[in-house]
Amino acid sequence: MRIRLDAIRDCLEGAIPGQIATADAEGVPNLAYLSQVQYVDAGHVALSYQFFNTTRRNILANPVARVALIDPVCAAHYRLSLQYLRTEEAGPLFEKMKAKLAGIASHTGMAGVFRLLGADIYRVLDIERVPGRTLPVPAARRNLIAALRASAETLCECADLDSLLAQTLNCLEMQFDIHHAMVLLLDARAGRLYTVASRGYPVSGVGAEIGLGDGIIGVAARERTPIRIGHFAAEYSYGRAVRDSLARNGLDAGLETEIPLPGLPDSRSQLAVPIRAGHQLLGVLYVESPLDLRFGYDDEDALVALAGGLGAAIQLLQHAPPEAPGSPAPAAPPGATPAGPPLRVRHYAENHSVFLGPDYLIKGVAGAILWVLLSDFVAHGRTAFSNRELRLDHRIRLPELSDNLEARLILLARRLIERQAPIHIEKTGRGCFELRVERPLELLELPPAD
Amino acid sequence: MDAPFPLVLDAAQAAFVCGGVSISAASCRRGGLPNLARATGCRVGADRRTLNVLFASAAAAALLEDVRCSGRIAVTFSEPPTHRTVQFKGSDARILPPEPDDGALAAAYVDAFASALTQLGYSGEVIRAVLASEADELVAVSFTPSAGFSQTPGPNAGTALGAGR
Question: What is the ipTM score, two decimals?
Answer without folding.
Answer: 0.94
